[in-house]
Design a protein that fits this description.
2 domains, alpha/beta, globular, 18% strand, Rossmann fold, Arc Repressor Mutant, subunit A, 213 residues, two-stranded antiparallel sheet, 5-stranded parallel beta sheet
Length: 213
């Protein structure tokens, strides 16, 4: 998986530990890191994901999430925190986080979280599902006897494909990287059991997916 990740954490030892496992976890990943959040203006849409500590000096996860939203930077954020309090989990999802992972999690859990978010879905350990409000969860549509699970971001991508936009154009419109758009398109192909954009749109229209816009 080609992916560009930024780690934001004020514990340098933890950053170094995370960076050390990525060559085995995701060999093609480009991993950057900072141990402060003073230079938020440096964040840009070239990033595919941010791994963000919950609490840091001079601000925290909520400040970063709000900055991204205010500046229309739709970079997926995975919160990686020592906190397992329900109030913290609820708070970051309310402010736009795409995932939450405890720092006690395994490297396999981290990989699952990254892949889930790259597929356009939200990630949270199963035991914490109850902490996510219904509007933050992916939608499961029962259409013509079929269950199709699409996140709001996958919906947006599908709608833009239907309007004839290329991956590059979708990247610009949604403020995300071309790699992320490509990943979303692959997920849509898989979810709707198709192999091309033409077949994807034909199937989506046949299933009346666009009536949910």
């Amino acid at each position: 998986m080609d992916i560009k990740i930024l780690i934001i954490d004020d514990h340098q030892l933890y950053i170094e530990g995370l960076k050390a496992i990525f060559p085995q976890l995701l060999p093609n990943a480009e991993v950057l890191s900072v141990n402060h959040i003073e230079n938020l203006d440096e964040l840009n849409q070239d990033l595919d994901m941010i791994l963000l500590d919950l609490r840091m000096p001079n601000g925290g996860a909520v400040a970063v999430l709000d900055y991204l939203k205010t500046n229309r930077l739709t970079i997926p954020v995975l919160i990686v925190s020592a906190s397992e309090h329900s109030s913290d989990i609820k708070l970051v999802f309310e402010h736009g986080a795409m995932g939450y992972l405890p720092k006690t999690a395994s490297s396999d859990d981290l990989l699952e979280a990254i892949k889930t978010i790259q597929n356009g879905d939200k990630y949270i350990p199963e035991q914490w599902d109850k902490f996510i409000s219904s509007e933050n969860q992916s939608v499961i549509l029962n259409i013509n006897g079929q269950q199709i699970r699409l996140s709001p971001r996958l919906y947006e991508t599908l709608q833009l494909i239907d309007k004839g936009f290329s991956n590059k154009e979708i990247s610009t419109i949604l403020g995300i990287s071309s790699h992320t758009v490509s990943d979303y398109v692959k997920v849509l192909f898989q979810r709707l059991d198709t192999n091309s954009r033409t077949e994807l749109i034909h199937t989506a229209r046949a299933l009346n997916l666009f009536k949910f816009q």
